[in-house]
Amino acid sequence: MGLYSHAPEGYECPFCQIVSGVERPNHGTKQCDIVYQNDHVTAFIASKWWPNNKGHVLVVPNLHFEGIYDLELACATEIHRAAKIVALAMKSTYRCSGISTRQHNEPDGNQDVWHYHLHVYPRYKDDNLYQTRSYQTEPDERQPYARKLRDWIEANS
Ligand SMILES: [Zn+2]
Questions:
Q1: Cα 6 to ligand 1 centre (Å)
Q2: pTM score, two decimals?
Q3: How far away, in angstroms, is 44 Cα from ligand 1 center?
Q4: Span 14-151 CATH architecture
């Protein structure tokens, strides 16, 4: 258990499952949602979307850290290296006019999965990201976005 931990006893971490190749049930993240993976980090299309910012990505460390408090700095570098690659891929393939990242810690910080994750959002003029409500996507809906980013990253790294 890390510093300021909120994960319940016996928590089955969904992000550790994704990193280790486990297929999540129902609407959950599938292996084909992964757009980038190396020895340190995994980046995948989020299963929860905001209506005007479709196809946003989560970057997670492959090792389990719950939040920013115990995240290793070497890992933070790798997370931002991957976020930069994803941001460039979004700029080129989504044609977004901006990029935002956000990262939540503890329930009062709106964290809802107990494994550190950095959101990378495509942004557009007047998209009202912070005023809109998220919704659960279907795996099929995510595939075109995953394919675009994965293809760009493969061709440019
Ligand atoms: Zn985990």
A1: 13
A2: 0.96
A3: 14
A4: 2-Layer Sandwich (3.30)
AA identity, residue 79: I
Q: Which helix (H) or strand (E) holds 14?
A: helix 14-19
Query: Mean pLDDT in each 10-residue stretch from start to end of the chain (157 residues)?
Result: 88 96 88 97 97 98 96 96 98 98 97 97 97 95 98 96
Distances (CA, A) of 21 to 97, 101, 106: 33, 25, 26
User: What residues are paired with 119 via a beta bridge?
Assistant: 58, 102
Q: Distance between CA 30 and CA 27 in Å, rounded? A: 8
**What spacing in Å lies between the alpha carbon of 120 and ligand 1's midpoint?**
19
- Centre of ligand 1 to C-alpha 79, Å, is 15
Sheet holding 41-45, edge to edge: 34-37, 41-45, 57-61, 118-123, 98-102
Residue type at 117?
H
pLDDT at 3: 85
Q: Using the mean position of ligand 1's atoms as its centre, give its distance from the Cα of residue 65 in Å.
A: 7
Residues by chain with Cβ below 5 Å of ion ligand 1: 13, 15-16, 64, 115
